[in-house]
Design a protein that fits this description.
Elements: H1 9-18, H2 23-41, E1 44-47, H3 49-64, E2 75-79, H4 106-114, E3 117-122, E4 142-143, E5 146-150, H5 156-163, E6 169-174, H6 180-186, E7 189-192, E8 212-217, H7 220-230, E9 260-265, H8 271-286, E10 290-295, H9 303-318, H10 336-347, H11 350-362, H12 369-389, E11 398-402, H13 418-422, H14 429-434, E12 438-448, E13 451-461, H15 466-479, H16 488-492
Parallel strand pairs: 2-3, 2-6, 9-10, 9-11
Antiparallel strand pairs: 1-3, 4-5, 6-8, 7-8, 7-12, 11-13, 12-13
Helix pairs in contact: 2-3, 5-6, 7-15, 9-11, 9-12
């Protein structure tokens, strides 16, 4: 059998069912790797070792009583944006450095019911604002494939931890690509379901009309297993949808017969992207799909500006609650204005302050319709066009293309250019604007100075068609073994 940390979620569950190992064994293997590797990555902000050991022992007791389940005893970690009662939740910010929530996020409660074992909380861009994970108040997350490169953001800790074998799976959040982009950079599978499919209750808000919880795993099959536990309507979240949760794992057939797939050809793609798309066409056709080229639409140039206006406006509104009085970083002052100014100035990092200021501006009297109102109209245009394309009338079931414009870039390369940083999400933003499910799967490698760097393939489907997106990703991974490769730092480290 492989070292315990190398097992997928499905393999680990099967091994425990056979009695080859216990949940405690698996938990200790991951805790040992976190102790050995996390200092060089910065993936974990909080390691909940005592809690993990308690939950692992409880999982073994449940198995001994005859219970079985795909996540029972499986160790995982949460992006530090999900609140956990009694366990610090920072959102990657000094503003919440000492915040210990009194309640649990719905996804955490559902994973507890499933018997999964929480190893800790993962690093992230502050309040999920960033695409490189360099905007955390606690230091950047480093890419396991090359520690001089970014892990991607804002769920960089969630992707790096899975890639390096520090947990079997993790949860992240995706506002404009914050699951899929780090998944691409770190060579793992990152899945963002349709907006409303997974509860946002207990998830610290950034842009409420775009934020969505999702999974980071080794495989699409593992993503399907985790989705089976966390998806579904939640009475505590008014935006969660009253939709039947399908048997995602049961629908993974390895075949795509009858599906029509649009291959999105970037306007300015390079040779690596061309090869990625050529390979994707071959693999998808081998699985039974019909593949045709899809060109960029005329509104592509508006995608990033529209997104920036919307998310900054919503961030400005959501982050107004952090005043240092009820909770958050507090600085004493002579009057209310001085206290708020000092507390927010010290508590928020530069990128968060930038977005709050931009959002306040686009919502200001005299500018709101020109900026925010116009962005809402463009968003509706994008949604209608995508839904028209991904419909029986439009003829396509899926749209496939590169997840990012290239591999992970060096640390610090884009810190002084906010526009370049925002453009990292140009291929991933449309799915968020339209609320569609999308997944990034490993799909080859680029040659880097320190070794290979992963590339990602994005698959976007119709709203509520998570099962189809996961089936396509699973069929792709059955014919492409990019997901099996591990970064050198993971395989050369002492195996638990």
């Amino acid at each position: 059998m492989l070292p315990l940390w190398q097992l997928t979620v499905a393999e680990a569950a099967a091994a425990m069912d056979r009695g080859d190992m216990s949940a405690v064994d698996l938990c200790e293997a991951y805790l040992a790797r976190i102790g050995a590797l996390n200092d060089g990555l910065g993936a974990f902000l909080t390691v909940s070792a005592d809690l993990a050991r308690i939950q692992a022992a409880q999982a073994d007791a449940r198995r001994a009583a005859g219970e079985r389940g795909p996540l029972l005893g499986i160790p995982y970690a949460l992006k530090d944006l999900f609140v956990t009662a009694g366990l610090r939740t920072t959102a990657g910010s000094r503003m919440l450095a000492d915040y210990v929530p009194p309640y649990d996020a719905t996804v955490y409660r559902r994973l507890q019911v499933a018997g999964a074992v929480l190893l800790g909380k993962l690093n992230m861009d502050e309040f999920a604002m960033g695409s490189s994970n360099e905007f955390s108040a606690y230091g950047a997350v480093r890419n396991p494939w090359d520690r001089e490169r970014v892990a991607g953001g804002s769920s960089g800790g969630s992707a790096a931890a899975v890639a390096a074998g520090l947990c079997a799976f993790s949860l992240g959040t995706d506002t404009g690509g914050s699951i899929r982009l780090p998944a691409s950079f770190c060579g793992v599978t990152g899945f963002k379901p349709s907006y409303g499919r997974v509860s946002r209750y207990g998830m610290v808000a950034f842009a409420s009309s775009l934020d969505q919880a999702g999974t980071l795993t080794r495989t699409a099959r593992d993503a399907a297993l985790v989705m089976g536990a966390i998806a579904g309507q939640d009475p505590l979240d008014a935006t969660s949808a009253d939709k039947v949760v399908e048997g995602y794992a049961a629908g993974l057939s390895g075949r795509l017969d009858g599906l029509r797939v649009g291959l999105a050809i970037p306007e300015a793609g390079d040779a690596e992207q061309a090869q990625l798309l050529t390979d994707a066409r071959r693999i998808l056709e081998a699985a039974g799909a019909t593949v045709e080229d899809v060109r960029a639409t005329a509104d592509e140039a508006l995608i990033v500006p529209t997104y920036v206006v919307l998310v900054t406006a919503e961030a400005s509104a959501n982050l107004a609650r952090y005043d240092g009085i009820r909770y958050g970083h507090h600085v004493p002052g002579d009057d209310l204005a001085a206290m708020l100014g000092a507390g927010r100035g010290q508590g928020f990092g530069a990128e968060v302050r930038r977005r709050i200021l931009m959002g306040t501006y686009v919502l200001a009297s005299g500018y709101q319709d020109a900026y925010y109102g116009q962005a809402c109209r463009v968003r509706e245009l994008v949604r209608r066009r995508l839904e028209a394309t991904l419909s029986p009338e439009g003829g396509l079931d899926l749209i496939v293309g590169p997840t990012t414009a290239g591999p992970a870039f060096p640390l610090g390369a884009k810190l002084t250019d906010p526009v370049a940083m925002y453009r990292n999400d140009i291929y991933t933003i449309p799915a968020n604007l339209a609320g569609l499910p999308a997944i990034s799967v490993p799909a080859g490698f680029s040659a880097g100075p320190a070794g290979p760097l992963p590339l990602g393939l994005q698959i976007v489907g119709r709203r509520w068609a998570e099962a189809t997106v996961l089936r396509a990703a699973d069929a792709f991974q059955a014919r492409d073994d990019s997901w099996r490769r591990r970064p050198v730092m993971a395989t050369s480290a002492a195996s638990a």
